[in-house]
Amino acid sequence: MIPYGRHSVDQKDIDAVIQVLQGGWLTCGPVVEKFEQKLEKIVSAKYAVSCSNGTTALHLAMLALGIKAGDVVLVPAITFLASANAARYVGADVVFVDIDPTTGLMTAQTLEATILQYQDKPLKAVVNVHLAGQCENLEAIHMVAKKHNLLIIEDAAHAIGTIYMDKNEELYPIGSNAFCDVTTFSFHPVKTIAMGEGGAVTTNDPEIAKKLKLLRSHGMIRDNSEWEEVESGPWYYEMHELGFNYRISDLNCALGLSQLEKLNGFKAERSKIVAFYDNAFSGARHITPVKKLKCSDTAWHLYLALIDYDDLGKSRAQVMTDLKEKGVGTQVHYIPLHKQPYYKKLYGEMTLPGAEDYYSKCLSLPLYVGLNQESQRSVVSNLILNA
Ligand SMILES: *Cc1c(COP(=O)(O)O)cnc(C)c1O
Questions:
Q1: Ligand 1 atom nearest to 333, measured from its CA
Q2: For residue 385, how far is its CA from the centre of ligand 1 (angstroms)?
Q3: How far apart are CA 321 and CA 302, in angstroms?
Q4: What is the pLDDT of residues 221-280, one digit of tens each?
Q5: Which atom of ligand 1 is nearest to the CA of 301?
Q6: pTM above the 0.85 mark?
Q7: 86 by DSSP, 3-state: which?
Q8: Ligand 1, atom nearest to 83 Cα
Q9: CATH classification number, 263-386, choose in 3.30.420.270, 3.90.870.10, 3.40.50.1000, 3.90.1150.10
Q10: Domain 11-260 is of which CATH architecture?
Q11: Which atom of ligand 1 is the closest one to the Cα of 79?
Q12: Which residue of 39, 98, 147, 368 shows the fewest CB atoms closer than 10 Å?
């Protein structure tokens, strides 16, 4: 069976984890800091704060930016549940933004249209999701958001290794926060870099970084210069606000650190597979790859194909079942969030034409490091035969 995605772990990764097992720190040790420093370097951020997964990264980001009950957060309708749920964790409400059906991405235009539609609401922040690893025009999104006084969280769960290119061809790695306040990452095994479970928030603001670290570990303050009561004694610590245990272990970080060393190679191999599929589907009537944007030097996490099932005369379920019988796994990214019963109950029925058009066509094809050429050809021929 060819799955739609899988991790790639080699002997170096295994050795790195074993080394931690043989050392003195399984968690809260030096490898966590090493991982954070490596991530800071790779994405050109001043601060990287690791945490237990991409969802807790989003939750910490919301908390550190002071987003709270009464605020409204804009979230694209096509993303994983966590992008919106994190706003709900802090009691904020969500407004869904439509996307460009040719890419699945929120644009400056769809964002601004939604802001104008909901301008009587206390809009506070926007989550910009780099679906499949690709990023939109970040300057344009930044301009719209700042014009309306919105904070920007980039959900880069898919986009470690992607580089945004502005109109002067300046390069900005995703995570450098050149056009946002904070960026969140996920290192779940289906994502580009696997840590088992893992996540991180990057920022260039020392106050936000400090807050993220505090909230990640119960809100415990060990630095005596910041205590309210002065008590002496090596046992003493204070808590000023409610925090969590969202830490990540040295074991996970050893794997992550070793995986990050291979990021450029992973990106190159994934790009090659994407180019192979794009080329193979260039003549196929029913299959259109998502549009590739010039401003994004993309580290592809997913391969998104848009299939005209109506024209094909076969449902998506049937296409997926037929492919599965031939040993090809596929997936759908994602069911529009405004169609989820939880959000429908909260905010009522709504129609977002771009998201619904995209959802009616999308199918994620196998894309991972180690997907060999024979498997790639098998995906293409089975899909085209099916189509
Ligand atoms: C995977 C994912 C998350 C959550 O990451 P976890 O590490 O699984 O918690 C958040 N946002 C998006 C877009 C994702 O794909």
A1: 15
A2: 33
A3: 20
A4: 988 889 998 777 888 999 999 999 999 999 999 999 999 999 999 999 999 999 999 999
A5: 15
A6: yes
A7: helix
A8: 11
A9: 3.90.1150.10
A10: 3-Layer(aba) Sandwich (3.40)
A11: 13
A12: 147
Which residue out of 7, 56, 186, 333 has the highest number of ligand 1 atoms within 8 Å of its CB and is therefore the one to mutate? 186
Q: Hey, whose CA ends up nearest to atom 3 of ligand 1? A: 54
pLDDT of residue 232: 75
Domain coordinates of the chain in residue numbers?
A: 11-260, 263-386
* Beta carbons within 8 Å of 205's beta carbon, 6+ residues apart: 46, 47, 181
Do β-strands 151-155 and 123-129 pair in parallel, antiparallel, or remain unpaired? parallel
CA dihedral over 339, 345, 350, 354, signed as positive or negative: negative
Ligand 1, residues at Cβ distance < 6 Å:
53-55, 79-80, 82-83, 129, 155, 157-158, 186, 188, 199
* Residue 19, token pair as written in the block: 């080394």
Give 164-186 pLDDT, tens digit per residue: 999 999 999 999 999 999 999 99
Ligand 1 centroid to Cα of residue 372, in Å, is 26
In the three-class reduction of DSSP (H, G, I as helix; E, B as strand; rest coil), residue 331 is classed as strand
Contact 152, 143 (CB under 8 A): no
Domains 11-260 and 263-386 in one fold: no
